[in-house]
Amino acid sequence: MSENQGSQGLPRDAASWATKVDRLTVEGGRSGGINVAGRRLTGPVQGFGKMWRKTYWFETGPQLSPETAIATWKKNFGEFWPKASRFKGPLTGLGPGDVALLDVRVGGGVRLSTGVFVLYADERSFTLMTPQGHMFAGWITFSAEARGAATRVQAQALIRANDPLYELAMGLGGHRKEDQFWIHTMTSLASCLGVAPVAVHRRTICVDRRRQWGNAGQVWQNSVIRTMLHSAATAIPRARQPRPGPR
User: Which of 36, 105, 140, 192 is surrounded by the most beta carbons within 10 Å?
Assistant: First the structure.
């Protein structure tokens, strides 16, 4: 038996992986899943734009264990985001196979309602994967590890813009906003962990400069457009309701 296998012949981390899903479901009747339920997952191969690897990290002393950092991050994930963005995940934290809903301000008063799928989660890392219509096709891994006398806490994304409109938006300031989002998040996490102030470092590498024009039709699933259409459709009936007359 391989040292990486358990007693049942399965990889030792098998329980940390989500089971394969064909389409996402939103459990418990949670609202806000208009661009999540029924959607397929998309990795970097399925995206449209250039492929990027973005890494954000900070380091602190050995008083912070990797397990404590990740446990805190999973349990309070959305609390570290900027106030204009909302994250609706399971109350007990993020586990393999969970689906969480997102509502993010993308600029100019425009909002993106979408979600993420927890592909992997263990004591030292967890990985989120995006559905169709999300701004990005890909995954982002959150991890912590001991490096000599320091503990490194990191977020690393491997992503492509999902369609031509998202790709255009990234070139018009989206990359800068993405950096600001994760630097704010990691600064907030460090403060919660009691290790602030810290310097949040970042590294961005273009892994593939090609655009995959065969995937340009994914604009049909664009969650920003569908969020706007949904908001307009729900506002019209409210506007038509008669107003109460004077008493």
Answer: 36
In angstroms, how far is the first alpha carbon of the chain from the final one?
A: 82
pLDDT tens string 94-146: 999 999 999 887 766 778 889 999 999 999 999 999 999 999 999 999 999 99
Section 82-89 average pLDDT: 87
Structure token pair of residue 203: 């590294």
Average pLDDT over residues 41-52: 96
Amino acid at 116: V
Please give the Cα distance from 95 to 105 (Å, whole number). Answer: 25
Tokens 């050995």 belong to residue: 62
In degrees and rounded to multiples of 5, residue 225 shows phi and psi of -60, -45
CB atoms under 10 Å from CB of 145, counted, come to: 14
How many whole angstroms separate alpha carbon 12 and alpha carbon 30? 33
pTM metric for this prediction:
0.87
The topology under which CATH files domain 30-224 is Alpha-D-Glucose-1,6-Bisphosphate; Chain A, domain 4 (3.30.530)
Is residue 144 classed as helix, strand or coil in its secondary structure? strand
Cα-based torsion angle of the residue sequence 231, 234, 237, 238 in order, rounded to the nearest 10 degrees: -70
Which residue's entry shows tokens 């394969």? 20
SS3 state of residue 107: strand
